[in-house]
Amino acid sequence: MADGANLPPDPTPLVGAATDVARLSHASPKPAHERTADEERGAIDWNALAASARFRELLRAKRRFIVPAMVVFICYYFALPVLVGYARPLMERRIIGAVNLGYLFALSQFFMAWMIAALYVRAANRFDKMSREVVEGK
Question: DSSP letter at 4?
Fold first, then answer.
């Protein structure tokens, strides 16, 4: 009797490791996490999508919100050190007891950040809806 004549074939080439979630044979389909975009059934043509007018409209809408919001916040943020450095008497002016304008301006930056974040959440919901419409081709 030849060595290994009654043994099943070695599955090692088909399985990476005992904990691997790989397919058990080359005939079965690949798991989703192993497929490339070209192998996906019903895959979206991302190049055509990126060239579409709706996608460009989405990018313009995002840019119209993000760029002005960023510019406003950066100017507001850097106004504090500039004003403290160049308009010290103004920033030292007492407003409420020992609290001066500089402290209130610094505190207001938190509220400004929260306000911009809230506005962005609202805008992002609109962007998400537009994104779904672009992908679905509506």
Answer: T
Q: How many distinct structural domains can be found in the chain?
A: 1
In a domain, 11, yes or no: no
Residues 94-104 have pLDDT tens digits of 999 999 999 99
99 inside domain: yes
7, 8, 9, 17 from 1: Cα distances, Å: 12, 15, 17, 31
Query: Considering the entire predicted model, what is its pTM?
Result: 0.63
24: closest CA among 35, 13, 33, 32? 13
* Residue 29 placed within a domain: no
Range of the domain at 88: 46-136
90, 98 Cβ separation under 8 angstroms = no
Phi and psi angles of residue 68, each rounded to the nearest 5 degrees, phi first: -65, -40
End-to-end CA distance of the chain: 68
Dihedral (CA of 104, 106, 112, 114) sign: negative
Closest CA to 58 of 138, 122, 119, 128: 128
